[in-house]
Amino acid sequence: MKELDKKINEHFPGLVVRKDLTKIVKGNAIVPTYVLEYLLGQYCATSDGDTIESGIDRVKEILRKHYVHRNEAQLVKSTIKEKGHHKIIDRITVGLNDKAGTYEATFSNLGIKRVLVETNDIKKHPKLLVGGVWCIIDIAYEASEDPKQVPWTIDVLKPIQVSHFDYDSYCEARRQFSTTEWIDVLLQSIGLNPEIFDHRRKMLQLIRLIPYCERNYNLIELGPKGTGKSHIYSEFSPHGILISGGEVTVPKLFVNNATGKIGLVGYWDIVAFDEFAGKDKKVDKSLVDIMKNYMANKSFSRGIETLGAEASLVFIGNTRRSLTYMLKHADLFTELPAKYYDTAFLDRLHFYIPGWEVDIIRGEMFTSGYGFIVDYLAEILKKLRIKDCSQLYTKYFELDSDISTRDRDAIHKTFSGLMKVIFPNQNASKEEIRQLLELAIEGRRRIKDQLLKIDETFIPVNFVYMDKETRQTREVKTLEAIQYQSLKAEQHK
Length: 493
Prior knowledge:
This protein is α+β, with helices and mostly antiparallel strands. 39% of the residues lie in helices and 19% in strands. Strands 4-3-2-5-6 form a 5-stranded antiparallel β-sheet. Strands 8-11-14-7-15 form a 5-stranded parallel β-sheet.
């Protein structure tokens, strides 16, 4: 076992799992990683080989007995009927029956509907009302002479989430790791092999975690296919939801004015839009307008009432052109649908992950080392949402007064998120803080540079900061701008 793996097991006993186990137990069960690791965490959160082997067998047995495959739904329903009750793992969505005044569940894989859910369950787990939630459910069957009555009843409903964690212990254990070690721990926790990545590429992966720990963070990542852009938003946490960019509507995202029902931003920490790029995609302009207001003001309207929400928005999509082509002939937002190719919308983004720098996923990129059970890490990041680390750099550095309030806010939010992810106990050195600040500035500058290309009325900004100790100033440029200027200089020789 590697030294880092020993160290993780020593300082986080019972909270880490060998990351290749998810593939071993998954089989043909179409479930998110956090569901599998929840189960692995119950039986395999150890470095002892014999315990892991028996734990794998136990988890496989649980999946075999209780996970509902769609093509076996009739068999499972028969089992429930014959036994009277049965424990299942399924994804359920709950809706309110207005006429009856009852909450009714729809089971994704089992295919049954209108199953009554107790009001107390809804109060404890309101996300059941918006999108699907994976649950372990004790479900019973009781035949009735009334053909209109649903025979299925829920005895026990338990969403698959870590029930408790000790945040202070997490921060204390963090002190036992160097910054390099901790970054590698986080990489392994999201399933990646840190030995494959250089420092910059590791950081680009970790930026994807910021929306989980930073409220109202607006992130975009555009790049080639196959770089794993959507994985962390669909597999990593029960607090985020991934939807197709084409499925977005005002009622689904914000509010249904006819019913008053709040949409996804009211219930989830992250709403991620997959397949967001595509020039020909039809987009409702009113949606874009409401989204712009929400991204700027953290609020939206329901009739005469204004509501606030904390959901971060993530936009991910594929680019078809090379980086050189986009820099020379267009801009880095050129793939977006026309309605989103709007400077007011783009200006509300806090960071642009340069997807062309993220490697295409290959087999050797996945780790067989140890990392946090992803649900545990997801709960830690959720806890961090209430903290604000945006001013911690001001002890050492100062942003240029030329940087606008909107640019400054974007830099602050990214810096705060990176501090929470890498330094939850806030004990970063001056040089480490410098690196995070420069990365935060670069991600915002990438957006601002493109806005200047799209709309000449935008005022150029000097993305400069000053070292308070030496009084020296430093301008931060994007990596692609530096490389492109070097390329042009070479061509002109």
